[in-house]
Amino acid sequence: MSHEAPAALSRRERQILDVLYRLGRATAAEVTAQLDDAPTSTTVRGLLRILEEKGHVRHEQDGLRYVYLPAVPREDAGVSVLSHVLKTFFEGSPSRAMAALLGSRGDGLTGAELERLARIVEDARKESA
Description:
Elements: H1 11-23, H2 28-34, H3 41-53, E1 57-62, E2 65-70, H4 74-89, H5 94-104, H6 111-128
Antiparallel strand pairs: 1-2
Helix pairs in contact: 1-3, 2-3
C-alpha cells in the first residue's frame, strides 16, 4: 500500500486490523477472541479474506491453519491514510490539518509534545532550505 487512497474499511474491518497490529500475527480464532461483541468465527474469516483482497492483510500457512498479519507496517498504513485525509479534507495542506488538530484538542498538549512538534517543524525548515 503506497501513498494512494486506502480502500474503505468497515467498522469491523478496522477492529480486526487493530487486533492484528496489536498482536502482530494471529489466527482467525485468536482475532475473534480479541473482539468485543465478536461475530462468528466464520464471519471473521470472511472479513480477513476481504482485508487480504483489499491489501491490508496477508496470511501464512502454519500446518492446517492460516496465520494473518498486517500487509504493511502500521506507520506506513498511517502515512497512507493521513495523506488521503490531507488531500480530501485539507486541500493537501499539512498546516491546515495541524491547525484543525491543535484547535480541536480540549486537553492541550504536554510540554514534551510541544517540544517534539517544534523539532519536527525545525527539521522541515532545514530540509526545505
